[in-house]
Amino acid sequence: MAEHPIRFGIIGCATIATKVARAINLAPNSLLYAVGSRSIDKAKSFAAVNGLSDTVKLYGSYDQVLDDPCVDVVYLPLPTSLHVHWAVLAARKKKHLLLEKPTALDLTELDRILEACESNGVQFMDGSMWLHHPRTVKMKEMLFDSGLLGQVHLIHSTATSMGMTEFFENNIRVKADLDALGALGDLGWYCIGATLWSKNYKLPTSVTALPDTLKNSDGVILSCTASLHYYDDDDQPIKKSTTAIIHCSFLSYTCTDLSISASKGSLHLKDFIIPFQEDSAFFNYTLDAKLVELHIGWNIVKPEKVVVDCELPQEALMVQELARIVEGIKKSGCRPDSKWPEISRKTQLVMDAIKQCVDLGCKPVYLTENRTHYN
């Protein structure tokens, strides 16, 4: 551990907080300093279940964590409906922020959070852990840095998880007053993020939700499919375009596929959100693959496999990166890294557009840098 680690406080003892608490303890430059819940008994129970050190401060309210001057960063895994209140308050208390996704119910709320972070000089990052995995870095090199695969034309991403009866009756992710975005916010966030990542964070021109969207009696989305369209504005006689298809659902068996087809090759992985193994991950790619004569096979025996080792879990790498940025702000007067809030904002903007399209009966919604609109 670093001599002076960045001290994290957790607000809310949701299930996901167990995973991030572990990540904070694994990251070499961070320390889990405090945990706050709505009651001291819940905080104590969380500490006991997770085997936390006796040195971790336990608080019976969220405010106590924010008022602790020793806390540098707050991790906030509360229901989405509570994000804007507690995130803005945390920023005003000069706490750097790791916010669980989806970041907010809509872009207006997220902009309030980001403005509070910017005006108080604190770093913002959402909990999209897969972006911090070295496999993602390796894929980026192939897609953008080397141009090996050429121009991206088609993206397909899926994030599904089968909910049981108890889930649909009691889980906050299907409650309109807690997490009104449902599967679109919880799982679709990853698919939207993967699409934006695959296009180097260029926004799509338009989005169209398919009419297969399913909602519960509370109006919360349980399953949704949407297409995202990119159109180039150049003067070429044949216009180049990219289509991305995303599917998210609480009604299907676990699936986290990502497939990217480009002009020279393709890239595929089955576990883009959470790798099959913590310490190693892989992806497959093809280059200049063609059907042989008579279309009875391919000119390649099988796709190439790239294996990437990972010394720390991707959640710990996320924490490590955030702690590194915070240390630079604290000790060297560096400015917060604008990349992370920009990624979150674009993801939220596209998610808003899909939700708007669903509400409009699948009428296409068009995007600009700051808003969505329909004709």
UniProtKB/TrEMBL annotation:
InterPro entries according to UniProt: Gfo/Idh/MocA-like_OxRdtase_N (IPR000683), GFO_IDH_MocA-like_dom (IPR055170), NAD(P)-bd_dom_sf (IPR036291)
Q: Which Gene3D superfamilies does this one have?
A: Dihydrodipicolinate Reductase, domain 2, NAD(P)-binding Rossmann-like Domain
Superkingdom of this entry's organism?
A: Eukaryota
Every GFO/IDH/MocA-like oxidoreductase domain range:
143-267
- Residue ranges occupied by any Gfo/Idh/MocA-like oxidoreductase N-terminal domain in the UniProt entry: 6-125
Q: Which GO terms describe its molecular function?
A: nucleotide binding
**Chain coiled-coil ranges:** none
Q: Which family does it belong to?
A: Belongs to the Gfo/Idh/MocA family.
Return the protein name: Gfo/Idh/MocA-like oxidoreductase N-terminal domain-containing protein
